[in-house]
Amino acid sequence: MNEKLKIVADRIKNAKKLVVLTGAGISKASGIPTFRGKDGLWSKYSPSELATYEAFSKNPKLVWQWYNYRRKIIKEAKPNPAHYALVELEKMFGDNFALITQNIDSLHKRAGNKNVYELHGNIFETKCLICDKIYFDDKIYSDDELPPKCVYCGGKTRPNVVWFGENLDRDILDKAMSLAAQCDVMLVVGTSGMVQPAASLPKITHDIKGVVFEFNTEYSGVSVYAEEVIIGKSEESLPELVKLLK
């Protein structure tokens, strides 16, 4: 791993723009289950029952109960060394750093990253289906409060996350694609490379002759675009990378 990390560090030192793409794997060490691993949340619950608008329309209370459960896990979690290593990278690059994440857990922001683009939304935001207001909301609701009423108009609300079958926020996606096309180095951390359109971002960087480096516990759908794949725990490899850069 050390030799590969030196290659990554040397390339980053010469980079003008650095972009990082993260997936659920970076938060696993914080105690947040991944969706697609053998111990992931999807092994216990069916996505078709809990993460579609159709499911919400049919049984909003059940869907909110599940998001309550997830909120509780995430509120108790803390950023791990991988998150803090990315904060250090942002300090090094300033405005020439951007972090694109598929995660809805807010751990990057809690760790201290500023320039964060949340492709799939944020579990601590609520959206009203009547007035369209989106607002911060980290409350763990009792069952008789579900679904929560909008604090602005009293309408029915949903978690402000992207469900299966829904489009990503166009502005955020366009920005992510633009960043992928502009950077000369992209680090991809803890993603399966199975979920589009996020999985296409490393290909964009690769195709415009940027360099992609992957940090993961196993090879993924992104690996084919990576110049180097660092297999291991990101909470160990990313802090080591920062040490090499310093």
Helix/strand layout:
Layout: H1 2-13, E1 18-22, H2 47-50, H3 53-58, H4 60-76, H5 81-93, E2 97-101, H6 107-111, E3 116-118, E4 121-128, E5 134-136, E6 157-161, H7 170-182, E7 185-189, H8 201-207, E8 211-216, E9 228-231, H9 234-245
Parallel strand pairs: 1-2, 1-7, 2-3, 7-8, 8-9
Antiparallel strand pairs: 4-5, 4-6
Strand content: 15-25%
Q: Helical region count? A: 9
Question: CATH superfamily of the largest domain, please?
Answer: TPP-binding domain
CATH topology of the largest domain: Rossmann fold
- Specify the overall morphology: elongated
Integer count of domains? 2
N-C termini distance: 18 Å
Low-pLDDT ranges: none
Could you estimate the helical fraction of the residues in percent?
Answer: 25-40%
Number of strands: 9
SSE string, helix = H, strand = E? HEHHHHEHEEEEHEHEEH
Q: Nearest-angstrom radius of gyration? A: 18 Å
Structural class by secondary-structure content: alpha/beta
Per CATH, the architecture of the largest domain is 3-Layer(aba) Sandwich
Please give a structural write-up:
It is a single chain. The protein has 246 residues and is of the alpha/beta class. It has 2 domains: 1-31 and 79-120 and 168-246, TPP-binding domain (Rossmann fold), CATH 3.40.50.1220; 33-76 and 122-161, SIR2/SIRT2 'Small Domain'. The chain is built from 9 helices and 9 strands. It has helices at residues 2-13, 47-50, 53-58, 60-76, 81-93, 107-111, 170-182, 201-207, 234-245; strands spanning 18-22, 97-101, 116-118, 121-128, 134-136, 157-161, 185-189, 211-216, 228-231. The strands form 2 sheets. Strands 3-2-1-7-8-9 form a 6-stranded parallel beta sheet, with helices on both faces. A 3-stranded antiparallel beta sheet has the order 5-4-6, covered by helices on one side. Strand 4 and strand 5 form a beta hairpin. Helix 5 runs parallel beside helix 9 (234-245). The radius of gyration is 18 Å and the shape is elongated.
